[in-house]
Amino acid sequence: MPDKGTALAKRGTVRGKLDSYFEITKRGSTYSREIRGGLATFFAMSYIVVLNPLILSGADASGAELGGARVAAVTALVAGVLTIIMGAWARYPFALATGLGVNAFVAVTVASNPELTWPDVMGLVVLSGITMLILVLTGFRTAVFRAVPASLKTAIVVGIGLFIALIGLVNAGFVRRIPDVAGTTVPVGLGFEGKLVGWPTLVFIVGLILTIALVVRKVRGAILIGIAASTVLALIVEAVARPGSQGAGDPAGWSLVTPSLPAWSAPDLSLLGQVNVFGAFGELGVMGASLLAFAILLSIFFDAMGTMVGLANEAGLTDEEGNIPHVDRVLLVDAAGAIAGGAASVSSNQIYVESGAGIGEGARTGLASIVTGLLFIVAMFFTPLIYLVPFEAVAPALVVVGFMMVAQVGRIDWADWGVAIPAFLTFSLMPFTYSIANGLGAGFIAYVVIRSVQGRVKDIHPLMWAVAAAFVIFFGIGPIEQLAGLS
């Protein structure tokens, strides 16, 4: 295959020029792998078009709501455009969409502050994105990325693997949150009340067994075949058994997306530009608005860094020191995602861990991202397109990709407790707190503290001190707000 790719490039054909531009052959990939990878990534993360409107569904101080149909359409549009830019310019197989965690923080902020409107809070997201863009242009963000010790970078990969696997298991209903009631001793458990229930969970189990078998047999397109087969099974199950969606007291249905065939609908893009950049400062004052913007900034700053490191390592796109070539382009697109997401009223857009599904399928270049982005653009006109594939059909791919990423745990230097303990905190807290940023923060702080206790202060990069200090503020934002009289 490499000889063929080289020959195509030398002949100057369109196919050869694409191969040369995206470095498809150089990175050990093929056109078919890139296309399959782009498809797998889209189906793994398309749920955000349904979930984001649900998260951003509340009314603001003026009683205004963003509207589900409008949020869905703009979510697909912004994700599509940014992912295409990531693929065409940065040339990495990373897809972007509205970040989970940041959108929830934005929704809670609106709900808990009677003075703020949606445009006010989205203005804070824009300002955070602009700040991050400045940090990239000045080289600070890239420098922070390079200052992270190799073992911590590996821990990030492992943590994201565990995180992806947990997302898959929870989305499939195989693992479920246990209600916080008296007598409850564990936060999560197997299925519903300790038992697996419902046809959707069976779809997941069959899909997982099939995907594992295909991967073990090294079948080309194993992950995408697993998703496609699980989707077909899901459509049959819904047509015959009609489990429907999960409702109150009905744990046997589909977790969010009930599989159905798509239909055309005209997108409503009226949310674009509905933002008040400095509105929050007028309502909360400089201190209150700045603290909120800082919390948003740290979340999008480190979530993206952790995700990017994990995905690039899994794809084999890092150098011998664990650094990503031309990482500044990736970071610039990610910063633009925060600005664009805020300006479009759908919250900050960032690199998605579900891009690992495409990487697991073999994607190694930006061509896969272009495929994913184009599918998001199509989904904008066929918003029900994302109802074709339920969570339970994609979850097996996430579990298998999680295994692939966790397999790198052996690269951590366990004999050196100065990096081993921070690494452990990093990869354990990511799934346990459902946040990449929280895992990074605990790991960074622990690294600085333990190296200091060991008397090895000289081993700590100056930027690690700064990042650790920033995370101390991040974790202490609640008490700080209380002392400042803001909550």
Features:
mainly alpha, two-stranded antiparallel ribbon, two-stranded antiparallel sheet, 2% strand, globular
Structure description:
The chain is mainly alpha-helical and about 475 residues long. About 65% of the residues lie in helices and about 0% in strands. The protein has a two-stranded antiparallel ribbon with strand order 1-4. Helix 5 runs antiparallel to helix 15 and helix 18 crosses helix 19.
Brief write-up:
It is built from 20 helices and 4 strands.
Measured by DSSP, the beta-strand proportion falls in under 5%
Largest sheet: 2 strands, antiparallel
Oligomer: single chain
Low-confidence stretches: none
The total strand number stands at 4
The global form is globular
Distance between the termini: 61 Å
- Biggest sheet strand order reads 1-4
Order of helices and strands: HHHHHEHHHHEEHHHHEHHHHHHH
The radius of gyration is: 22 Å
Mean pLDDT: 88
Question: Which range best describes the helical content: under 10%, 10-25%, 25-40%, 40-55%, 55-70% or over 70%?
Answer: 55-70%
Number of helices: 20
SS-derived structural category: mainly alpha
